[in-house]
Automatic annotation (TrEMBL):
This is histidine kinase. It catalyses: ATP + protein L-histidine = ADP + protein N-phospho-L-histidine. InterPro entries: HATPase_C_sf (IPR036890), HATPase_dom (IPR003594), His_kinase_dom (IPR005467), Sig_transdc_His_kin-like_C (IPR004358). GO terms for molecular function: phosphorelay sensor kinase activity. It comes from Polaribacter reichenbachii. The chain crosses the membrane at residues 7-27, 33-51.
Length: 447
C-alpha cells in the first residue's frame, strides 16, 4: 500500500501541533493573553483534527477486520469517496475480499467435485470423530454395504448392530484386511482399511469398505476355468491311452477265453500292456501330487537375512552345475547391507527355479550368461532380478506362464513359476517378467 501521502499529512499535523504548543509556551512566558487564547483555541482544533484524521483510518481498518472476523467477504468499501490514502486503503480491502471470495468459490467447487466423485465410486467411506463419534462425512455406498440408513453418530450403529459396530469401528486395520459382514439375508465379503488423522485438536478415523464378493467370485471363476482347462487336458492325455490299451487287452482276453486255440494270448504283450497302464497311472498320480504341492505352502518362517549371504548359498549350490554346461553365472548385490525379512528356504526355492529356467533358455546360445542381482529403490523396495540372454518367451504364452500346470517344455510339470508366484504373494511381494524373443528374459522379485 502507498503510505507516502498518509505519512506526509500525519507529519504536517504533528508539526502544526508542536508549533502551536511552542507558541503557547512562548506567549505564556511573555504574558500575552490574546495570543494565548488564540493559540489555545488553535491547539484544540489541531488536536481534534489529528484525532479525527487517525480515527478515520483506524475505523476503516477496524471495519475490515470485523468483516474478516465474521467471514463477511461480500462487503464492499467505497473507492470513489474520501481522501486519496483512504480510497487506496479501501481498494486494497476490496482486492483482499475479491481474492478470498475466488478462493472460497474454488474450494467449494473442488469440495463438490470431490464429494460427487466419492459418491459415485463403489467404495464405502466414512470419517468420524474418535472422541464423540460424530460423523464428519459419509457416502451412500458405505450405507449400502452395511445396509443402514443415514446416521449422524456411529453410536446409532452400535445400538442396532453391536457386532457390526465392533468389526468396523472398534477394530483397527492399518493394512487392508478381508472380513465377513453378516447382513439380513447374506454374508458379505468386504475389504476394510482405516487410518487416523488430526484436524486441530480433534482426532478422526477414516474407514474404507469395499465389497469384494463379486470380484472374488469373478476371479475365482476365471481361475477355476483356467485350472480345469489345464487339468482336463493333462488328465485326458493320461486316461485316453489307458482306456484304449485296457480295451485292447480286454478284447484279446475275451477272444482267448472264447476260443483259446485260434486266439493265443501272448503273455509278454499282456505284461507290456499292464506295465504301460501302470506307468501312465503313476504319471497321473504324480500329476495329482504335484497339484497338491501348489496348496502346500501356506505358512512362512520369517527371519532377517542378508541378501549377500542368500546369494552365496545359491552360488555354492548352483554354480557348479551351471558352469558344467559352459554357462557363465554372475551374482551381484548393490550393497552388502541389504536385508530381507523372508522365509529363506522358500526364497531359495524360487531363485533355484528361476535359475534353472534361465539355464534351459540360454544353454543353446553363444556366450550364454545368467546374472542374479539385488538392489534397492528410492522407496526402499528390494528387487532381486534374474537375467538370461536366452531365447526369450513368446508373446502368445507370456501371460500364461504363471498359470498352474501350464508349460511349454516337453518334460515340465508347469508348477515351478506358479509356486514362485504363490511364495512371493505370501511374502506380500510380487514377481514380474519382461522378455524379448531371441534377446533374453528377466524375472524381478519385488519385496
Amino acid at each position: 500500500m502507498n503510505y507516502k501521502g498518509y505519512i506526509l499529512k500525519l507529519f504536517f499535523r504533528i508539526f502544526i501541533l508542536i508549533a502551536l504548543i511552542l507558541g503557547l509556551i512562548y506567549f505564556s512566558y511573555k504574558d500575552q493573553i490574546t495570543y494565548i487564547i488564540l493559540l489555545s483555541f488553535g491547539l484544540i482544533i489541531a488536536i481534534v483534527n489529528l484525532y479525527q484524521f487517525i480515527k478515520r483510518r483506524f475505523s476503516a481498518i477496524d471495519d475490515f477486520f470485523e468483516s474478516v472476523k465474521y467471514r463477511d467477504f461480500s462487503r464492499w468499501f467505497p473507492e470513489d469517496r474520501g481522501p486519496k490514502d483512504i480510497r487506496f486503503l479501501y481498494n486494497g480491502f476490496n482486492e483482499v475480499n475479491r481474492t478470498i471470495k475466488e478462493i472460497n468459490i474454488k474450494n467449494e467447487t473442488q469440495y463438490i467435485y470431490l464429494q460427487k466423485i466419492l459418491e459415485m465410486i463403489d467404495v464405502g467411506i466414512i470419517a468420524y470423530n474418535l472422541e464423540n463419534g460424530d460423523v464428519l462425512w459419509l457416502n451412500d455406498m458405505f450405507k449400502e454395504i452395511i445396509d443402514f440408513p443415514s446416521f449422524k453418530n456411529i453410536r446409532f450403529v452400535e445400538s442396532r448392530k453391536p457386532e457390526l459396530f465392533n468389526i468396523i469401528f472398534e477394530t483397527y486395520n492399518r493394512e487392508p484386511n478381508s472380513i465377513t459382514i453378516a447382513l439380513q439375508n447374506e454374508r458379505l465379503k468386504v475389504l476394510i482399511s482405516d487410518t487416523i488423522f488430526q484436524i486441530k485438536d480433534d482426532s478422526f478415523k477414516l474407514v474404507v469398505l469395499q465389497n469384494i464378493d463379486n470380484t472374488l467370485n469373478k476371479n475365482e471363476s476365471e481361475a477355476w476355468k483356467k485350472l480345469l482347462s489345464v487339468m482336463t487336458h493333462e488328465i485326458m492325455n493320461s486316461i485316453a491311452p489307458i482306456s484304449s490299451l485296457a480295451d485292447t487287452l480286454q478284447r484279446n482276453l475275451e477272444l482267448n477265453i472264447e476260443n483259446p486255440n485260434e486266439n493265443s494270448l501272448e503273455v509278454e504283450d499282456l505284461n507290456a500292456g499292464i506295465k504301460t497302464i501302470k506307468n501312465r497311472s503313476q504319471g497321473l498320480l504324480k500329476f495329482a501330487k504335484t497339484y497338491r504341492s501348489l496348496s502346500k505352502v501356506t505358512n512362512l518362517n520369517l527371519q532377517k537375512t542378508q541378501v549377500s549371504e542368500l546369494f552365496n548359498n545359491i552360488e555354492l549350490l548352483m554354480a557348479p552345475s551351471i558352469k558344467a554346461k559352459n554357462i557363465d553365472i554372475q551374482f551381484s548385490v548393490s550393497s552388502k547391507r541389504i536385508q530381507l525379512d523372508i522365509d529363506v528356504h522358500l526364497i531359495e526355492q524360487v531363485l533355484i527355479n528361476l535359475i534353472l529356467n534361465a539355464k534351459d533358455a540360454c544353454q543353446k546360445q553363444q556366450n550364454p550368461l545368467i546374472k542374479v542381482t539385488a538392489s534397492q529403490t528410492k522407496n526402499h523396495n528390494t528387487i532381486i532380478k534374474v537375467f538370461d540372454n536366452g531365447s526369450g518367451i513368446p508373446k502368445e504364452i507370456l501371460e500364461n506362464i504363471f498359470v498352474p500346470f501350464f508349460t511349454s517344455k516337453s518334460t515340465g510339470s508347469g508348477i515351478g513359476l506358479s509356486l514362485c508366484k504363490q511364495i512371493m504373494l505370501l511374502h506380500k511381494g510380487k514377481i514380474l517378467v519382461n522378455s524379448i524373443e531371441n534377446e533374453g528374459t528377466v524375472f524381478s522379485l519385488i519385496f
